[in-house]
Every structure is written in structure tokens, then in C-alpha cells.
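S., here's the first fold you wanted:
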Amino acid sequence: MLSKNTMKKNNLLSLIAIVAVEFSASLLAIPEGDLFMKARQAIFNGSVEDIKDLGLNKDNINNYVQENDAIQSTLLNIAIQAGEKDFVCYFIEKEANPRVPTLMTKKGITKEGITYEITYEIFPIHYLAVNPNVGIAEKLLAIPNAILPEDLLKKDNNGDTPVKLCLETKRGSNDAKKQTMELFGKLAQKLDEKALETYNALKTSLVLSTAQRVKRPKNNTVVCAPVNINKKRN
């Protein structure tokens, strides 16, 4: 016969098991879209604990979040875009795939009345360029094939490369931008000879163009709007 202490202990374990099952069931009961929105909100609130409480797994972390009619992103890309290193590290620990790009779809009608739909791929390197964060950049670059050298020449929905975005961004400190450009330079050394020539020519042209804008007299100063990779180009 079991002692009273043993029976109390077994009852307690049973109660814990029931609570655990009910908690897991409550997570499963959350529609996937709501789960993603809760995770997205946690990122912008800066609460890693809220993310952990959602019980995300590898599969739903790598699924797309429908941010609006035009944009489908991943939680990892949203965290990179927000400059939230702790979330980036958490998603990577949960096996988030850094090669899954954000998809941006542009729909329209030509003058001839023909409808069209174009989908652009925006990679983590574009977000790193717009919102320079050396800690996040180093974390991603330490993962094999997370960021590829050829990503340096990929264009976003506005036709801009990471170098252009980084040179023109209004976000981040000058030191962060400088260090990010240095990391890009090291990555560029892994390009083949022809691609490296293209990268260097593009970088030189952009640096000169930026310098010329800075030197213009005040009465002719061009006011450059902050780069927004989520903005559609007409």
C-alpha cells in the first residue's frame, strides 16, 4: 500500500501533467495566423519571453507571415529588420532558415490593360544594410551559407543593392554603417573575379555619388528620403 506522501506526490505529478497537456492544447488551438501575429508583436515589443511562451517550432518559424497584401516575411527577417539581436539568436537556435527571403508582390495594369504581378525577393542582407547591426551581421555570417557572397549584388524591390542601401540609410550610427560595409567588403572577397569587379565598380560609383551630394551648396542640396525597402516604386 502506498504511503500518504507517495499518494500526494503522484496526485501532484498527475495535476502537473494535466496542466501541461491543457497548456499544449491551448497553443495548438491558436490559429497559425494569430500565432504569427502574436510572435510579430512580441518582436516589436522587445519581449523574448513572450516569444518563448508561444511554443514556436522549426516548421512554423520558417513559414511565412502575411504582413499585408503585398508582403510575406519570416519571423527571422522581421527580427533582423527590427534590429533585435536577441530574437535573431533565439530563432537561429530554433533552426530558422536564413535563406528564406521576404516576398514582396507588386500588382498592376499596363497601359494596354494587361494585368501583371511581379514578386521580389528581399534577403537578410538587405535588412542589415538598411538597419546596420554589426552583432546581427556577425551572427549570421558565422552560419555557413546563411549569407552568400552573391547576395551583395542582389537587388531589392526598388532595384537597390545592399551596398547602396547601406551607404544611403539614415538608420544606425556612422560606426555601425562603417563596420557593416567592412563586413560586406570581406564577404566580397569570396566573389569570383568578374563579380568582384562589378561589386568594386558599383561601390566606387556609389561612394563618389554620395560624396558629391554632400559637397553641394545648401541652396542646391538634394534632400534624400530615408530608404524604405518596403515602399513600392511607381
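And the second, which I think is the more interesting of the pair:
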Amino acid sequence: MTIPEAELQRLLRMGRAILGVPGSSEEMLASLTAFIEGIERLPLSQISSENEDSLRELASLHAQVLAYAGTIKADWAKGLGELRRRGRGILAYADQLPKQLSSRPSKKG
């Protein structure tokens, strides 16, 4: 039994779509998660020579998607740092309580 070619083609389309979307959004993040989960579900024990070309292309695309995700992560970290810096500036200007900003919601329960 081999890996279904339709599944490989679906993952290839998904990966190309992720790389084709500029910027970062919730929809792109959901697509990225679905792509990674799809790769993890592939039955690698069923690799055959007829899937070899598609799998090579998928491996290359996977590396590109991971590099893209790394740049998005760095951009988000930079953006969050900028927001924290601006928040501290606003608090210093107002000079009123609270003296600390939290970027995480409070825990419930």
C-alpha cells in the first residue's frame, strides 16, 4: 500500500498557499497548523518509489514553510515588544496606577 497521491497533492497545494499569502493572519495560522498536522499524519512506513517525486517536493516545501513560520514568529515577537515599549511609555506619561502592564488575560477559576 502506498501513500495516496491525492493526500500528497492536497498537502502540496496547502503549503504553496501558505507561502503565497503575504503577512500573517489568523487564517494563515490555521492553514499552517493544518499543514503541519497533515504532514505528521502521513504514514511514512508506506513510502514507495511511485510517491518519491511528490515526497521530495513536499519535503522541500515543508522546509520552506518552517522557515517562513520562523520569520513570522520573529515578526510577532518584535511587534509584541514594540507594544510593550509603547505601553510602558504611556504609563510613564500618565504616571498613575497600574505600574505594570500584562499582555496575558487573567486566569479564571
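Why I say that: The chain has a mean pLDDT of 81. Residues 18 and 29 are 9 Å apart (CA to CA).

Talk tomorrow,
H.
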